[in-house]
Design brief:
Helices cover 41% and strands 18% of the residues. The protein is an alpha/beta fold. α4 links the parallel β5 and β6. The structure holds adenosine-5'-diphosphate.
Length: 174
């Protein structure tokens, strides 16, 4: 689908209306993409995050973007992989869906996502990619206010996994 793009890159460079941060439930910063976003945004981002009182897994909260080239950062803690029987699939879908709902509410037309939960949270990559792609496509079909979603994959292995998941979904619906 034209409205879903998959690219390799650094999400802190994205000039979309919103970027999504794979945060932790404290919203007080961490490693990986969370650390990169806080470094690029500057310390005011952490100051605003401190006022939010954390965020439960699968939910999403928005802040301003400060020195980032986007307008908003939408913070969502994805699930930590615990073997698959702790509602990880449902919670990962919630992270994508609730982030998109925040973007819609803020009037965003373009949104960029990192590969939520597949770094230090160890969600299996191909399984996460299928859930991400299916959830985003379902949301886009129901919500025309979002013009375009970009999946920003940091490395080529992640890029291949999301490209493959999109190809599988397109085949299923062909
Ligand atoms: P989680 O805790 O949700 O697993 P991580 O930040 O550890 O989050 O990893 C999520 C994904 O984000 C991984 O694929 C990681 O390589 C990727 N990542 C790290 N830095 C960036 C960045 N600057 N832009 C986009 N993706 C990034």
């Amino acid at each position: 689908m034209e409205r879903l793009q998959i690219i390799q890159g650094d999400i802190t460079k994205c000039q979309t209306d919103a970027i999504v941060n794979a945060a932790n439930t404290s919203l007080l910063g961490g490693g990986g993409v969370d650390g990169a976003i806080h470094r690029a945004a500057g310390s005011e981002l952490l100051a605003e995050c401190r006022t939010l009182g954390g965020c439960p897994t699968g939910e999403a909260k928005a802040t301003k973007a400060y020195r980032l080239p986007c307008r908003y950062v939408i913070h969502t803690p994805g699930p930590i992989w615990r073997g698959g029987k702790a509602e990880e699939d449902r919670l990962l879908a919630c992270s994508y869906r609730n982030s998109l709902a925040q973007a819609s509410a803020l009037g965003c037309k373009t949104v960029a996502f990192p590969s939520i939960s597949t770094g230090v949270y160890h969600f299996p990559l191909h399984r996460a990619a299928r859930i991400a792609i299916d959830t985003i496509l379902e949301y886009l079909q129901a919500h025309h206010e979002i013009a375009c979603v970009t999946m920003v994959c940091f490395d080529s292995v992640t890029l291949s996994a999301y490209q493959q998941a999109l190809a599988e979904t397109e085949q299923k619906h062909a």
